[in-house]
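ARCHIVE CARD
Drawer: 12
Card no.: 0347
Subject: one protein chain, sequence and derived structure
Cross-reference: see card 0346
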Amino acid sequence: MTTEYRVELDIFCGPLDLLLYLVRRSEVDVLDLPIAAITSQFVEYLDVLEFIDLNLVGDFVVMASTLVEIKSRSMLPRPEEEPEAEISDGPSGELIQQLLEYKKFKDAALALQLRAAEWQERYPRLSNDRPSRGKSPSADRIKEVELWDLVSALSRVLRQKEVEQETSIRFSETPVSVYVEQIGLRVRREGRVAFSKFFEGTNCRSKIVGIFLAILELLRNHHFRAEQPADHGEIWVMPPNQTTL
């Protein structure tokens, strides 16, 4: 069934979230955005998102086009009399302003999530209290390892594989829930499993996507954990309450 393959992931916050992640990973200031490097990295992530086949890819394509335009303008020769200030008033300035506003929003949201988590630890829910029907403020966070770290890890996996190219995509009939159960049992049994190990022995596109979505599901809603001891290194998936590496 195609509905089991095309899973909408609202955890993908959008292109500004990815852009901010790349800026932080590059350890640069938002106001000093390295357009050329960020554009190349953004396009690499876009390739993975297109592989996953998310419905939100269109917004990322628009952002990628904006970055390419800014990069192209920055490489064009400018008349000596043209003031630098005018350059920042163009698409680059608008993008930086959007990124700054988004950063403020995300920092504020993170502060509220941390405050909520501290409050819950200090005042545990009484046994006769009914559980909240909604999600906790921190329910959508993938702790230790960010979502984009996992997308980057998937990119490294794909570069090492020759994924089946089919003229008409054959969607897997295996529901994501089955992969969730299988992966969850394996992680609990082995204690921790390297992210890349889950994809060994398969070049089927739909199966790779199903496995990736299942890992996200375990991390997001089943209290599994993921850690990356070294920058850009292997990611390890661990069961709930597993001690750190």
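Annotation on reverse: The radius of gyration is 21 Å. Residues 1-8, 126-141, 166-170 have pLDDT under 50 and may be disordered.
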